[in-house]
Amino acid sequence: MLPKRFDQARPFATLGIILLAWLLLPLVLKTFTRATFFEIQAPLTVTDSYAQDLQTFWSNRLHSKDELLKAGQDMAGLFAAYDYSKQINQETESDILRLENMLNLPPLPTFRFEPARVARRDFSGWWQRMIIRKGENYGITVGAPVIFAGGVVGRVTEVYHYTSVVDLITSPTFRLAASVSGESRPVSYQGGLNDSFKSPRGTVEFVPLDIFATRSLPKHLVTSGLGGVFPPGLTIGDITTLEPSADGLFKTGEVSLDERLGTLTEVTVLVPLNPEEF
Question: Are residues 235 and 134 in the same domain?
């Protein structure tokens, strides 16, 4: 009878020994083991991503010529709009440089734009992250901001040789100094507990009492530029609700984020040209 019970309990005993050994391992060895496992797994993740790109390519070949012509016309309109935006951006940069020289202000941090393909998404109730197909081989650094056409995507938290892990703006572990558009007073943004089938959202804290926002009249939330990581003016989302905090000194509220965050296939990493500035 006893041997039978021992055989039944053997898997649990083995699991307990493995967990105890892992807890007793030094932190350096744990970090090395985790990084090694991630590097071994990375080729499979990247290969699967390339296979999906190939599948998308061949599925697009099935579109008719009329659909392709219409898509080309739409792209021509976008190129014209982007060309105009580029001219406006060059004029704005010239004005900023002139004001910096007049007021003797320190220059804003400069970045190199590195586009990257999304290889995998890892969403749960406790973290929201993605893996991109560029890492140390393209000079990606830990802490680098990640953006897309709609604004902030997240921040690079881990960098490996061929891949990087991005902590998304929807993640509860993500914090960022922000400000209401048109305001200079800083507020604090943090990701929230996001369900897979609901619209992405976050929270905002330390909002001044004289700022009001509702779902019908939301307030646009942007990066403040404080902290030296994200440049100022990048879109975060819209504040849809605001209520007095427990201490009554500030307000807290909910931030509605871009719906495209969960389906992105391409992002841009802002690699700092002078990492010592951060």
Answer: yes
3-state secondary structure of 140: coil
CA nearest neighbour of 169 among 219, 240, 119, 237: 237
Of 45, 75, 107, the position where a domain reaches its end is: 107
**14-56 pLDDT, tens digit each:** 666 666 665 555 555 555 555 565 566 667 677 777 777 777 7
- pTM here is 0.72
260: helix, coil or strand? helix
Q: Which residues contact 59 (CB under 8 A, 6 or more apart)?
A: none
Instruction: Write the DSSP symbol of residue 143.
Output: T
DSSP category for residue 157: E
193 HSE (CA, 13 A, CB side): 2
Is 278 within 8 Å of 225 (Cβ atoms)? no
Q: Cβ distance 169 to 236 under 8 Å?
A: yes
Q: Are residues 19 and 80 in the same domain?
A: no
Percentage with pLDDT > 70 across the chain = 78
Mean pLDDT of 136-165: 92
Which residue range(s) make up the domain with 80? 66-107
The tally of domains found in the chain comes to 3
Please indicate, yes or no, whether residues 43 and 102 belong to a single structural domain of this protein. no
Place of tokens 């993640």: 171
Per the CB < 8 A criterion, the answer to whether 107 and 100 are in contact is yes
Q: What is the pLDDT of residue 93?
A: 78
Separation CA 218–CA 237 (nearest Å): 10
DSSP state of 182: T
Looking at residue 31, its pLDDT comes to 56
